[in-house]
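Q: My collaborator sent me two sequences in one message, no labels, and asked for predicted structures for both. Can we handle them in order? The first one she listed is below.
A: Yes, handling them in the order given. First sequence, followed by its structure tokens:
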Amino acid sequence: MLTFRTAPWDSMAKFGTVLLFIILLLVGLSAGRVAQLRFFIVAFLSVLAIGTYAFAPRHYVIDNEGIKINRLLGNVIIPYTDIKLIEQVDDYFLSRWAGSGGTFGYYGAWENKNGEKVNVYTTRLDHLVLIMTDKAIFALTPDNEEYFIETVQSHLHDKNRINTNREVII
């Protein structure tokens, strides 16, 4: 079993996360006549921040069964038997449908330029590792993407489970 850290946050993820905490601080410190409303807003934003943090990817684990995306709430598992292709891409268009667009990283349901759904579990929007399965496309950002891909491919080749002829349109 190998554990890979997520890549460092890009500038937008850092900005989104810091902005959330600045808003929490400003609303919490603001003086106003309606203290109950201020409390409700701070409580709502705090729950939102905790929820956002809980679903963000922490790290990725490669073991004998597949790839596990570790999160505080609900890990995601991609079995080797489902993987058709894994590759690293630098320029990949993604548009968010639902999920986080920078606060504590990027995750959720996104769409690529071909209109295909992409399950995103990343800390940046460049140097992505794409994993294609029959059911879905996954985007990850391990800290050492080349070694991550080599390790996954060695498991796939050892088990003769990879289709090296599949073409991906980016």
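Q: And the one she listed second?
A: Here it is, processed independently of the first:
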Amino acid sequence: MLIDLAGMAQQINLSKADSLSKIYVKKGRFHKAIPYLKILTADSNRKFESAEMRRRAFYDLYRADSADNDWFRASSDLKNFQALKDSAFNVTASAQLKEMTVKYETEKKDRSIARLIDEAKLRETELAKDRLLLNTLVGGALLLSLLSAVIYNRYRLRQHNNQILQQLNDHQKQLISDKQLLVRETHHRAKKDLELVLNLLNMQAATLNDEFSLNAFTDISSRIRAISLVHQKLYHDKVEMTSINMGDYVNELVGFLQNSISFDKRIQIHFELDPIELEVTQCLPVGLILNEALTNSFKYAFPASHKGSSCIVIRLRKEQDEFIQLLVADNGKGLALDSDAARRDSLGLQLIETLTAQLEGSLEMKNDPGVSLLIRFPRKRPTFISSADPEKADDSISEKV
């Protein structure tokens, strides 16, 4: 018990010596600090003080002896300080090395355990993949067999259906060919019938002496000829027989009128025709309108007393909004239609108005200096064979003709 008390007393004394030495060293009073520093560096007090306290005491003593110019003792103090410092470093380094070794071994063992676990998982995964591959192969083989059976069955079924479709297509082609032949024959017979009617009218006209009746027969003949020309074009020029090239049709119609009416050679005809094809239901009204307008111009626009040039303009153009513009104009003397009653009494004008309405178009007529007829109507797209359409068009104007 006494020894312990003595040790505690010694530690207290060393602590006081350490505090006083720090104060004197800090103030630069090294000669005051040397006695306390010698107490702290004495070998007898090694066991009562910490290594840090002893190392710092030797360093402060080195500084004090150096300030006192006692270089021999200062060198000894520095060596002792360095030895304690190296010893402390070695102890720390050894402890750190041991700690690092323990950590390394622990990590190495953990890595080894983790690697073993990963290898076990990898083996389990490979086994699962092998099982899945085996099951997939077996299932794929079964599915391939089933799919092959289905494909073969579908192939046989499609082959059978293709044979049926080919038979139906051949039958349909034959029906279409037969229908085209019938339609062509219908147009041919219609043309022949109309030519027969024309011949009968010409024979009857040959027996007439009345100029008014003769003119009436001539007008009817030209109208029938305009209709007959449509059937002729359909019979000769078209395979589908749904539309007519209006440029060719207008030229042929004008040529017929020039040959059938007393045509004044002074009259010049200017064509402004766009490449337009019209459906049959529109071609017939347009042909009859041209027939009425040109017949009027040929007969009445340019009397013998007319002076200057004699000109007729025929224009057929396609506008951007899918409308067709038909213009027939001359620079003749014009029409004497000063009243609505006079207009109503004009059969040709009534026919033109009726045909314009049939085209769902608009009619604009000017009478100065000559006659100008401007008709705008929407264009219909040609459809597949419809042999009844020309007949319907003929029926719709039969009463006016």
